Amino acid sequence: MSNADADTDTETEASLRERVEAWLTREMPIIQMHGGTSAVREADPESGEVIIELGGGCQGCSVSDVTTGNIKAELIQWPDIDEVTVRVPDARESLGGPDQAESIMGIDRTEGGRGDWGSSNPGKDHL
Fold first, then answer.
1. Are 55 and 67 in contact (CB under 8 A)?
2. Radius of gyration over alpha carbons of the chain, in Å?
3. Which of 8, 52, 62, 74 has its CA 20 to 30 A from that of 111?
4. pTM of this prediction?
5. How far from 71 is each of 13, 44, 121, CA to CA, in Å?
């Protein structure tokens, strides 16, 4: 592959990525309006694969499934896109998951039964 070919591939990928990002901004303003974020993680014009990640207010949002479905339904219609993946990380992932002993504020999540990812066991130090 010559340098000219590599430059063309990079421009094509950037073009697809830029078009998807512009579409998200223009057609899905509700994401930002509700405190969410969107990022195009991959936009491969050769394979037609696009991966979008939603974050911020989208994590744990009850409507994120609808938003995800709307994004997929629209983008899959684009002639240069064959596969769309939209990821919404679990809110627990940003806190370290159920194995993390403390929250970001340094409070034991099991204290008083206020957490522990579904457990209502108040813990040994509960009064």
1. no
2. 20
3. 62
4. 0.62
5. 19, 17, 40
